[in-house]
């Protein structure tokens, strides 16, 4: 005989919604790597543009702006690559000191004093 289990409405367990699930670690890392590579590609284009415009007689502010961008973009790329998503509230707990304190070694035991003398 087959038994059918029915759930009551008051026994509902919370289910993770697909839309509220966080991005996986692999996807997050791939996104950060892609963002870094795009930023460094822009930096390379700025550097080449600064060299090209500077050698062909463009105004100083054009090649200067491109050169400044080429110098500052590596910092921006690293900061963006190291930016991780914030932790979900309640996902981490503070670490509390342990209440178990190890016992002190008793110094008045004769073997302990002999061991100390041998170490010196």
From TrEMBL:
Signal peptide residues on this chain, from the entry's feature table: none
Keyword DNA damage attributed: no
Biased composition (Basic and acidic residues): 103-120
Region (Disordered): 1-24, 87-120
Keywords: Membrane, Transmembrane, Transmembrane helix
The UniProt record lists the keyword Transmembrane: yes
Name the UniProt record assigns to this protein: DUF3099 domain-containing protein
